Prior knowledge:
The protein contains 5 helices and 6 strands, in the order αβααββββαβα. It is α+β, with helices and mostly antiparallel strands. The protein has a 3-stranded antiparallel β-sheet. Strands 5-4-6 form a 3-stranded mixed β-sheet, with no helix packed on it. It binds zinc ion (ZN) (2 copies). One zinc ion binds next to helix 5.
Amino acid sequence: xxxxxxxxxxxxxxxxxxxxxxxxxxxxxxxxxxxxxxxxxxxxxxxxxxxxxxxxxxxxxxxxxxxxxxxxxxxxxxxxxxxxxxxxxxxxxxxxxxxxxxxxxxxxxxxxxxxxxxxxxxxx
Length: 124
Ligand SMILES: [Zn+2]
Ligand SMILES: [Zn+2]
């Protein structure tokens, strides 16, 4: 299961259903329930990071050290997810944590938006 994410590489955000479909396409016969269980296990081992995106549902990405501290732009219409980096957000997070005496572990911003396709489909 993890090898699937490694093949796809960093920066992919897949839902359990998408992981399931890709495994089936690769002729690996697993049930969706098994996929859910494996994803949860890999997340608890911190090999995957679980993103909770209000409209995009739960998505998982490879949690590698070289790929931390990035942010997500999420389309509320179709769940399309783009990544971006912002040192400003990181600095703010660090400062907010510091001013409360917290030790920063991770600072991730999820931005809800509409992608161009969904925005043009929206009746105005
Ligand atoms: Zn990401
Ligand atoms: Zn969209």
